[in-house]
User: Which sequence fits this backbone?
C-alpha cells in the first residue's frame, strides 16, 4: 500500500499515527526521536495504573492514575481505547485525539496491538506502524538488561511478543529495529513523507 492510499481523503486534516511494538523492541526510544525531530507533532500521553519506572515522570511519560479512577473513565466512555496488559490498565483519552485531529495536528500514539484495533474502529484513517525486534532472543536480552522485571514477568512479555509479532502484517508499515540509528532514520523519513504529502503541519504553517 502506498502512502497516498493511506492518507485521509478530502480536505487536509490531522493525521493519527499509531506506533506499536512488543515490550523491549525500542518503541519508546524511537518515539522520543520522532518527537525531538518533529517538534510540532503532538504526543498522546497514555494513562496507566502501573507504577512509574525509574526516570519516568507523571504527565510526561504517562499519566499515572489509580485503578478506581481508570475504571470510572471506562464507564463514562472517556477512553478511545483501553486495555489490561500484564496486570495493569492503559488508556488513551478520546477527547485529546478528537480535538487534535479537528485542529489539523499530527498526533503520535504509542500503543499496543490490542489498542491499535480499537483505535481503528473509531479512527479508520490512522497510519499504523509496527516496530519489529531483530529476534525473540535479542528481545529477551533487552528485557533482562532492564533489570526491572521478574523472570515470570519477562516470560509473560515474551509470550505476548510472539502474539503481537504474528499480527505485524495488519500494519501499513513495518520497521525492524536491528540497528537503532538506522531505525530512527527510517522512521523519521517515513513521517517526513506524510508531513509533505498531507495537510498535517506542512512546512511554513
Assistant:
Amino acid at each position: 500500500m502506498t502512502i497516498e492510499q493511506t492518507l485521509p481523503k478530502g480536505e487536509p486534516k490531522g493525521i493519527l499515527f499509531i506506533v506499536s511494538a512488543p515490550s523491549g523492541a525500542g518503541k519508546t526510544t524511537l518515539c522520543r526521536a520522532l518527537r525531538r525531530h518533529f517538534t510540532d507533532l503532538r504526543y498522546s500521553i497514555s494513562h496507566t495504573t502501573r507504577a512509574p519506572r525509574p526516570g519516568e515522570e507523571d504527565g510526561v511519560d504517562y499519566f499515572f492514575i489509580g485503578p478506581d479512577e481508570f475504571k470510572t473513565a471506562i464507564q463514562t466512555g472517556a477512553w478511545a481505547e483501553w486495555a489490561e496488559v500484564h496486570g495493569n490498565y492503559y488508556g488513551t483519552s478520546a477527547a485529546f485525539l478528537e480535538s487534535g485531529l479537528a485542529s489539523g495536528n499530527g498526533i503520535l500514539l504509542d500503543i499496543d496491538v490490542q489498542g491499535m484495533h480499537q483505535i481503528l474502529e473509531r479512527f479508520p484513517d490512522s497510519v499504523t506502524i509496527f516496530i519489529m525486534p531483530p529476534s525473540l532472543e535479542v528481545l529477551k536480552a533487552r528485557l533482562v538488561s532492564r533489570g526491572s522485571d521478574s523472570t515470570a514477568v519477562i516470560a509473560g512479555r515474551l509470550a505476548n511478543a510472539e502474539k503481537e509479532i504474528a499480527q505485524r502484517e495488519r500494519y501499513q508499515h513495518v520497521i525492524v529495529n536491528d540497528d537503532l540509528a538506522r531505525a530512527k532514520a527510517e522512521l523519521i523519513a517515513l513521517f517526513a513523507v506524510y508531513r509533505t504529502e498531507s495537510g498535517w503541519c506542512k512546512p511554513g504553517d
